[in-house]
Amino acid sequence: MTPSTRDFQDASELGLSGSPEGSGRLSAHRALLEEYLSHLAFSDNPHLVQLVGAMRQTLLRENKRLRPLLCIEAASDFGLNPEDVLPSAAAIELVFAISQIHDNLPGMDGHRREVSRYSEEFGEATAILAGDGFFGEALSLITVHQKGRPERVLQVVQQLAESTGVEGMVGGQSLSVDHAQPVADRHNLEDIYELRWGTLIRASARIGAILAGATSERQEAVADFAWHLGICSRVAYEIATAASDEGHRQSLFIPALGLSGARNLGEKAVGRALVALEKTGVAMPGLSELAAFVCGEAGIRVRN
What we know:
The protein is built from 13 helices and two strands. By secondary structure, it is mainly α. The protein has a two-stranded antiparallel ribbon with strand order 1-2.
């Protein structure tokens, strides 16, 4: 029975427990990614030790790796070996690391912090330069190390650039600058989500599909899946960090909808994600397992 034929499913019914390690498949792909990221040294120039240190500390911080895993699982589900997509998956994580640095700069999220998490050790200037360095390194990973048809690699660069620019991640983060953040309400939640997180999340899955040679219709299906799953992931994060200062600063859905309303939204979003996935017309075990993991984090059930 497909997810769209019933109102609710537990995450366990989708084939994944929700544990951080996930299934054997997801765990193996995550391990491949972590190993690849750990070997990104960026430079052995002794004059750049501080910059490289700032970049590696940011990159190797523990997180869910949702965006690169979307890329890997989409590519794998469409028949590409996970190893063959690692340069692009890593590039996506490097771009996401830029946003992590931005989030910790003074004046972001409407709350000026005297000393940020990264600038305390490396200095604010080095933190900013580390973010700049990530974008160049991301482009290098794709254009130098990503194998595949040239037209597909070019599409990957295009997707990453568009999802990162003014109408993507950077534009979304500009909404977090002091006095610039719009008041979130039920009417503009998706617009704010689209800029701050949705564009890069959508591009992550699409990039994997592009590299695997999926049709444009299937690319669109996995991109829609990722966009809705990203909402669920965001809700899970807000629920998990609701009591912390960081969670309060970066929350979008809970302040506008309340805890129950946000959880409701997460349930609906993952249901829509799985309906979008069905539009590929083929089995997508990797992305289905990733969805179940995201659900399991917050105890979210699947609602259509």
